[in-house]
Design brief:
With about 400 residues, this protein is an alpha/beta fold. Helices cover about 45% and strands about 15% of the residues. The protein has a 7-stranded parallel sheet, with helices on both faces. The protein has a 6-stranded parallel sheet with strand order 10-9-8-11-12-13, sandwiched between helices. Helix 13 links the parallel strand 11 and strand 12. Helix 1 crosses helix 16, helix 6 packs antiparallel against helix 7 and helix 10 crosses helix 14. The longest helix is centred in the middle third of the chain and has 24 residues. The N and C termini lie close together (about 10 Å).
Length: about 400
């Protein structure tokens, strides 16, 4: 097939779960299909130089998003408060991208058009058939932001964005010929929320061989607990701050020297400051290779209270041979079983108890890690994910 693939951005450096999911799928699909990749481009040379790994032709649209820490970001946010679109969509809307997509559709004969994530749907002509890949149920994310908001102004902003996102997301899902969610749970939510039936689920994947613990790993930055995730994403920021404020003190009541590593790109000051006030907390920022950090840790924690999407961090920890303690939201939609191959706990006390029990029991850590590694190795390869995508889009071709 000749596929036009619209994405919010290019895929290198691959530092986010949804980004990694798309990259690994496209690497497999690119072997058998002609992929034309259209995305906003911030000028990164690596992004373009490595695009041949996953596409036949890259079509960059120059576009510099304002960093979250900049004054321009807040000016843009204020500007789009009165837009009918959700702010997160309005900020990524590009007239140049719309014109390029129209030109490509007019001049080339594509067998399939794919919108990767929700935001690129604004760049498609209204009547264009397409497949929508939903990495999150975005409306649910914004509703959870509302629930966890710390003050009335933030709560009002998130509620307004959730309402706009509901309208936008439902319209996009109804326009799409097929919608692909990352889990059966997300698919069920979208069916009920949008009133659609043309929706399918493809589980997330992992490169189990890449993450597998070596027989004799070199010395790594040892830590009792580790959290892995992009630290410029609000659900991760909220989860880490809550864990450090409410869960970690309960763990240290019984294990006073318990250490925590927070590994992920672009941590804000509120996360970086955790390491300056507590010598047993390490905040890494971006790392070239997450595997040594996983291999050197005893337990991976996923204490999310807000969230959706791929939960790639859980499958990566499983493949790396490290047991996982997560909230229900943290593991939502994954085909895992507690306590067989993961520990699920939702209160601060329950999370602390689960961490302490694993830290105190090398045999239980080894048992859970072995069961988890077998699960992801046998069932969740990227080859299976790509094959399932082909099966869905080729049945009654759009």
């Amino acid at each position: 097939m000749k596929i036009l693939w619209l994405s919010p951005g290019f895929l290198h450096p691959a530092t986010r779960g949804g980004q990694i999911r798309t990259l690994e799928m496209l690497r497999r699909l690119h072997v058998r299909h002609e992929i034309h990749f259209v995305a906003l481009h911030d000028g990164s040379r690596e992004a373009l130089d490595r695009s041949s790994e996953y596409c036949s032709k890259a079509w960059p649209v120059p576009y510099a998003l304002a960093p979250r820490s900049s004054a321009r970001f807040w000016l843009q946010t204020a500007q789009f408060l009165f837009s009918e679109l959700p702010v997160v969509v309005a900020r990524k809307r590009s007239q140049a991208a719309e014109q390029l997509v129209e030109k490509l559709l007019r001049e080339q004969n594509f067998d399939l058009v794919v919108c990767d994530f929700l935001t690129p749907t604004v760049h498609l002509p209204p009547m264009q058939p397409f497949v929508l890949l939903e990495h999150n149920v975005e409306t649910v994310l914004w509703r959870r932001y509302t629930e966890q908001a710390a003050n009335p102004a933030a709560r009002l902003f998130f509620r307004l964005q959730a309402q706009r996102m509901l309208r936008f997301e439902c319209e996009a899902c109804r326009r799409a010929n097929k919608v692909i969610a990352v889990s059966e749970a997300d698919a069920a939510t979208l069916r009920e929320m949008c009133g659609i039936s043309h929706i399918f689920a493809i589980p997330t994947g992992v490169d189990a061989a890449w993450f597998a613990r070596p027989h004799a790993p070199g010395p790594g930055p040892a830590s009792d607990l580790i959290f892995v995730g992009s630290m410029d994403w609000l659900p991760n920021i909220d989860g880490v701050r809550w864990f450090v404020g409410e869960v970690l003190p309960r763990i240290r009541d019984r294990l006073p020297h318990c250490s925590l590593t927070v590994a992920g790109r672009r941590p804000p000051a509120s996360i970086r400051d955790l390491a300056t006030t507590d010598a047993r907390i390490r905040v890494t920022g971006t790392v070239d290779d997450i595997r040594p950090y996983l291999w050197a840790a005893s337990v991976s924690v996923v204490p999310l209270r807000i969230g959706g999407g791929t939960r790639l961090k859980i499958y990566e920890a499983m493949a790396a041979g490290i047991p996982v303690v997560a909230t229900t939201i943290g593991a939502e939609g994954l085909d895992v079983s507690s306590p067989e191959n993961v520990c699920i706990a939702d209160t601060a006390d329950a999370l602390a108890n689960a961490c302490v029990e694993l830290l105190n029991s090398p045999s239980e850590r080894a048992r859970q890690a072995a069961a988890a590694a077998a699960l992801v190795r046998d069932r969740f390869s990227w080859e299976n994910v790509a094959a399932r995508f082909e099966e869905i889009v080729c049945s009654g071709r759009v």
